[in-house]
Design a protein that fits this description.
Strand order of the largest sheet: 7-6-1-3-2-8
CATH topology of the largest domain: Peptide Methionine Sulfoxide Reductase, Chain A
Active site: 76
Strand content: 15-25%
Number of helices: 9
Structural class: alpha+beta
Domain Peptide methionine sulphoxide reductase MsrA: 69-219
EC number: 1.8.4.11
Number of strands: 10
CATH class of the largest domain: Alpha Beta
Largest sheet: 6 strands, mixed
Enzyme class: oxidoreductase
Shape: globular
Function: Has an important function as a repair enzyme for proteins that have been inactivated by oxidation. Catalyzes the reversible oxidation-reduction of methionine sulfoxide in proteins to methionine.
Distance between the termini: 67 Å
Length: 246
């Protein structure tokens, strides 16, 4: 049904609802004008209703890739987070306290060394862009894996090194990677490999600390940040993981 047909039906409805002869030429044009106003108003409301909807939200939801996560403790979490977020394929990072013995710890409590928490970075990554062995390889470049409860100038159980997983399928991958890296050291490694028992976000001022405070304290050599940005996975033949490309 086209617009003229709809107008004709609308006018017929008006005629039936009016007393006989009351729909003069003047009233006819007035009714038709009212109809046009109503039509324009309806179209405007339709446009506004579409404008109010987030464009493409359903498409974005279906296009979202599933992320994986791993929790890495490497001494002071300020530098560890800043390093890890440079890596291509790392989608999000948050700093916090992992595997301790109290609920909702504060930084001051963790610093006492009595809570058993480790300063830890939660890493969410795209497995299509970066794999877990590659992340661990890079992480090892920022730590001394043979040093117990000490990284750089920081001492205490909260500064221990550790890899904490939430997916049990990651455990054999972690162990195989760490065993391979252990061959590079003359002393035994002391990096914890454990399931994540708990994790509490650190206070807001700790999040993205070195972004907010360029030049702030960091136990990691700043040249490693550039290495992390440039690092790429090398694949050969059947795609077997090989090494880093600087």
């Amino acid at each position: 049904m086209n617009t003229l047909q709809r107008e004709f039906l609308f006018i017929q409805y008006i005629q039936k609802s009016q007393p006989y002869g009351s729909l003069s030429c003047y009233n006819f044009h007035r009714v038709r004008g009212m109809k046009q106003i109503i039509f324009i108003f309806a179209m405007l409301m339709t446009c506004l209703s579409y404008a109010g909807k987030p464009e493409g939200r359903s498409e974005r939801r279906t296009d979202m890739k599933p992320m994986k996560e791993i929790y890495l403790a490497g001494g002071c979490f300020w530098g560890t987070e800043h390093f890890l977020k440079q890596i291509e394929g790392v989608e999000a990072t948050q700093v916090g306290y992992a595997n301790g013995n109290i609920a909702n710890p504060t930084y001051q409590q963790v610093c006492t060394g009595t809570t058993d928490f480790a300063e830890t970075v939660k890493v969410q990554y795209d497995p299509d862009e970066v794999d877990l062995p590659f992340l661990i390889d890079l992480y090892f470049k920022t730590i001394d894996p043979t040093s117990l409860n000490k990284q750089g100038g920081d001492r205490g159980t909260q500064y221990r090194t550790g890899i904490y997983y939430t997916d049990t399928a990651d455990l054999p991958v972690i162990r195989e990677t760490v065993d391979r890296l252990a061959a590079n050291y003359s002393r035994p490694l002391v990096v914890e490999i454990e399931p994540l028992k708990n994790f509490y976000l650190a206070e807001d001022y700790h999040q993205d600390y070195l972004d907010k405070n360029p030049g702030g304290y960091c136990h990691i050599n700043p040249t490693l940040f550039d290495l992390a940005r440039k690092a790429k996975m090398k694949k050969e033949g059947d795609g077997e993981y090989l090494n880093l490309e600087k």
